[in-house]
Amino acid sequence: AFQVAGGPGLPAGTTLGHALLHALRGAGGPGVGTALLVRTGRPDVPDELAAEAGGLIHLPPLRRWTARWAYDNALRRLGVPEPAASRDLRALGVGAVFASWPFTRFHGIPLLLWIHDFQHVRLPELFPAEERAERDRAFRAAAAAAARVVVTSEDVRRDFAAFAPAHAARARVIRTAVPVPDAVYDQDPRA
């Protein structure tokens, strides 16, 4: 399951999410499927992401004061992350969740976490001190929580190894490319 990252309000729009889904499907082989995981009350997923994902898993928030909500909250107090959602995902056959930061952990489901870059380390003058500290904290939490850390280049893999040497072996490079629909090649370039 792929937690939606990016959107129309971001500079890259949905292009990055589209490219990551395409790369993950290609890296996983023929037996691996992908689906978008949406945790909002109403799923609002751009068409191009939904088409690339191949499926949609919609887990709306639990209704307050129901038995399931109370049970979920009791388990959370005992330290179980996202008990109801985790149970639902396992029942759907989800074998891993792919996310960026901020991320949500699910009980009993491996987390594949994407770290896009270490610009805040390489170019600290471009970031306020508070943002650098927040990224450091988030990336350290990601390194500790993730079964695998997904990066999109060898440079980022090396930066990750220097940043979190105890977790360096968790990093995997997945190359991305924006897929071009076949219909584009059917058009006359002079038109």
Describe the structure using short key phrases.
191 residues; 40% helix; three-stranded parallel β-sheet; 8 helices; alpha/beta
Protein model, in words:
- This protein has helices spanning 15-28, 47-53, 67-77, 83-91, 119-122, 129-145, 154-163, 182-186; strands at residues 2-3, 36-38, 56-58, 97-99, 111-114, 148-151, 171-173.
- Helix 1 packs parallel to helix 2.
- A four-stranded parallel beta sheet has the order 4-5-6-7, covered by helices on one side. Strands 1-2-3 form a three-stranded parallel beta sheet, with helices on one face.
- Residues 6-11 have low confidence and may be disordered.
- The chain is globular, with a radius of gyration of 18 Å.
- The chain is built from eight helices and seven strands; from the N terminus they run E-H-E-H-E-H-H-E-E-H-H-E-H-E-H.
- By secondary structure, it is of the alpha/beta class.
Instruction: Give the class from helix and strand content and strand pairing.
Output: alpha/beta
Coarse morphology: globular
Instruction: Give the CA-CA distance, first to last residue.
Output: 40 Å
* Strand numbers in spatial order across the main sheet: 4-5-6-7
Helix percent reads 40-55%
User: What would you call the quaternary organization?
Assistant: single chain
Topology:
Layout: E1 2-3, H1 15-28, E2 36-38, H2 47-53, E3 56-58, H3 67-77, H4 83-91, E4 97-99, E5 111-114, H5 119-122, H6 129-145, E6 148-151, H7 154-163, E7 171-173, H8 182-186
Parallel strand pairs: 1-2, 2-3, 4-5, 5-6, 6-7
